[in-house]
């Protein structure tokens, strides 16, 4: 009975934290993730119809790649939901890195899709066949490509604004799908005009290699987040400038460290103040710098360690009066 009560209390606590997030900015990413799932189903249906009309191996490969879109949209939706849960006793820094796991999974599934396409292309290149109703198939596939291109743009632009690696990764994944569809359409058009039906599987193989490259790059970028890679140099420059100009009353700042996890940018450093500075005055300086950093770097999590003047290293950030 006690175990049941413990489980019920745990479930209640988790649900409370999730409900607390309903009004936060993550709700925007949740809507976009739901939209990705819906778009994924529609695009897959259109591409499957195009393959059924034509019998083209390239269109079959394109449809296979779209099944990954649906799976990764589900993964992104789950990851964003988990990342939205506030920090707790077991995860004091929050759950933001869940989005990086989703992005890695998407990269892996992109590579799997590319291998499936290569397999289909290899099997058909030695026995090319005439494609049925190529124009009709191209029109249906073209409609799916236009929808994908529009949603790809939405995900990448909004994902960057919301600082959501999962949405940006999903958008880049859709971008590879758009490139795939464009290559497939070109192959079918050339094959129809020239009668060289071997172009159908050949183009599918070439596009698959491009998808392999895209998937490997996505995995590399996502792993850098999991390994606590520092923020980009442009952001780091902004952080240094803010500390230098806003930490009036301090002497210097050193041991600056940064990392990012999902929407949040973690910043921590040591701030050296004159030895006669009171705790209250030092705290006021820290509050001022923290506020300035959060204005310059949205969703920043700032930790400042105050040190007396004899701890100065004279190698960090000089504070300007």
UniProtKB/TrEMBL annotation:
Transmembrane segments: 32-54, 66-86, 98-118, 138-157, 178-199
Major localization listed first in the record, in broad terms: membrane
Annotated compartments: Cell membrane
Keyword Transmembrane (UniProt): yes
Keyword Coiled coil tagged: no
One GO MF term: cadmium ion transmembrane transporter activity
GO cellular component annotations of the record: plasma membrane
Gene3D superfamilies in the record: Cation efflux protein transmembrane domain, Cation efflux protein, cytoplasmic domain
GO biological process, one term: intracellular zinc ion homeostasis
Residue ranges occupied by any Cation efflux protein cytoplasmic domain in the UniProt entry: 232-309
Membrane protein topology class: Multi-pass membrane protein
Keywords, ordered alphabetically: Cell membrane, Membrane, Transmembrane, Transmembrane helix, Transport
InterPro entries assigned: Cation_efflux, Cation_efflux_CTD, Cation_efflux_CTD_sf, Cation_efflux_TM, Cation_efflux_TMD_sf, CDF_Transporter
Pfam families on file: Cation_efflux (PF01545), ZT_dimer (PF16916)
Family, similarity comment: Belongs to the cation diffusion facilitator (CDF) transporter (TC 2.A.4) family.
Protein name, per record: Protein p34
Species: Puniceibacterium sediminis
């Amino acid at each position: 009975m006690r175990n049941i009560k413990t489980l019920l209390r745990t479930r209640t606590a988790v649900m409370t934290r999730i409900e607390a997030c309903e009004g936060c900015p993550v709700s925007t990413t949740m809507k976009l993730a739901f939209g990705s799932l819906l778009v994924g189903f529609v695009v897959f249906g259109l591409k499957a119809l195009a393959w059924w009309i034509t019998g083209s191996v390239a269109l079959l490969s394109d449809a296979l790649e779209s099944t990954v879109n649906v799976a990764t949209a589900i993964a992104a939706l789950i990851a964003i939901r988990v990342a939205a849960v506030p920090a707790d006793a077991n995860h004091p820094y929050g759950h933001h890195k869940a989005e990086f796991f989703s992005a890695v999974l998407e990269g892996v599934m992109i590579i799997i899709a590319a291998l499936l396409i290569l397999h289909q292309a290899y099997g058909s290149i030695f026995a090319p066949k005439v494609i049925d109703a190529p124009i009709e198939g191209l029109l249906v596939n073209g409609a799916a490509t236009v929808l994908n291109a529009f949603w790809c743009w939405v995900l990448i632009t909004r994902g960057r604004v919301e600082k959501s690696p999962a949405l940006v990764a999903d958008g880049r994944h859709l971008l590879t799908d758009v490139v795939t569809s464009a290559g497939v359409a070109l192959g079918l058009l050339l094959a129809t005009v020239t009668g060289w039906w071997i172009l159908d599987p050949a183009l599918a193989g070439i596009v698959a290699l491009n998808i392999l490259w895209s998937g490997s790059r996505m995995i590399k970028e996502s792993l850098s987040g999991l390994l606590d890679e520092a923020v980009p140099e442009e952001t780091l420059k902004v952080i240094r400038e803010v500390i230098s100009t806003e930490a009036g009353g301090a002497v210097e700042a050193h041991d600056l460290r940064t990392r990012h996890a999902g929407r949040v940018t973690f910043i921590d450093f040591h701030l050296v103040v004159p030895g006669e500075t009171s705790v209250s005055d030092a705290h006021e300086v820290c509050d001022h710098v923290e506020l300035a950093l959060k204005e310059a770097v949205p969703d920043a999590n700032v930790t400042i360690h105050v040190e007396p003047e004899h701890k100065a290293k004279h190698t960090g950030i000089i504070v300007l009066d």
